[in-house]
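Feature request, filed as a ticket because there's no other form

It would be nice if the structure record came with a short human-readable summary line next to the C-alpha cells. Right now we just get the raw output. Example of a typical job, pasted below so the devs can see what we mean:
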Amino acid sequence: MRIRSIQLKIALLAGVCVVAASSALVGYSIVSASNSKAFVGEHVDALTEDSTRNHLKTLALAQAALIKAPLDTAFDSARSMARMFEISAMNDNEMATPAGKRRTEFNAVLLNVLKDNPRFNGTYSAWEPNALDGQDQLFRDKQDVGSDASGRFLPYWTRSANGKLAVQPLVEYDSAELHPNGVVKGGWYLDPKSGAGESVLDPLPYVVQGKNVYLATMSVPITIDGKFVGVAGADFDLTFVQKLAQDVKASIYDGKAAVDIVSYKGLVVASSDHPDAIGRPFDQIDPAATSQLPLIQAGRDTVDGNAETFTALSPIMIGRTSTPWS
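Raw output as currently delivered:
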C-alpha cells in the first residue's frame, strides 16, 4: 500500500506538471501569435504606406511633366522670337531688317506665332525707348501697331474667347507697383530687364480685349551687344491651366484626388476643387500651405500625410527660370 501510495503521488504530480506545461505552451503560443500578428500588421502597414508614398511621388512627377509641357511651348516660342528679333534689329548685321520695316515685320511674327499656337492667349514684345528703330516719335499713340503715347514698340497680340485676334499696346510695363495679390504689375518686363533672365510671372491680373483675366506670362529678354533692349513673350489665360488641373484630377484615383497648381510666391495658378481661388494665396484654401511654401520654392518633391490622406508636391520647372511652381 505504501508503495502504491508513493506511485500514485508521483503519477499525480507528473500529471499536474504535464497540465501546467501544456497550459504554459498554449498560453505562450497565444501570446506569440498575437505578437506576431501585431508585428506583421505593423510591418504590412509600413510597407503599404511606403508603397503608397512611392507611387504618389512617381505619379506626381509624371503629372507635373504633363502640366509643364504645354507651358514650355510658350517659352520656346518666346525664345525663338527673341533670338529672331535680336538678329533683325542689330544694325551692323547684314541680315538686319531695315529700320523702317521692323515694326511691320515684328508684328507679323507675333501674329503668326499666335495663330500657330491656339492654346496661347497672347504674344507680345516690349522695347526700350528708341531701341528698336530710333523712330518712337513717329508712332506716338498709334495703337493699331502696338504703340502708346511714348511711341515705344509695345504690341500685345491677343485671342478673345470667340477667337478674335487683335493688337493693343502693353500697359504698366515700367510699374513696380503691386497688384492686390502681391504680383508686381510690370514684373514680366522689369525682371528680365534687371538681369534675372527668363521670367514666368505669378498669376497676373490683366485686361485683354476689355475682359479681366488672370495670365501666366512667360518673358524672354532681348539683348543686342550684351545690352538689354526689350522682351519677347507669350502667355496663357489661366482658364487653360485650370483645365489642365481638372484633366489631371479626372485621370487619377477615379477623380477622387484634388489637384492644385501653386506659383513660386504661393498663389493659386489652378485648383481642381477651388477654381474661384485662382490668383489668391494658397493658404486660403489649404492652411498647410504656409509650411509647404519653402518646399515649393526650393523645387522639392515630397509626399506627406498619413494612412488616410496624403499630399504630394512635385516641382514644375518652366523654361529656364529659377522660380518653380508646384
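Something like this underneath would help us a lot:
The first helix runs from residue 2 to 88.
The mean pLDDT is 83.
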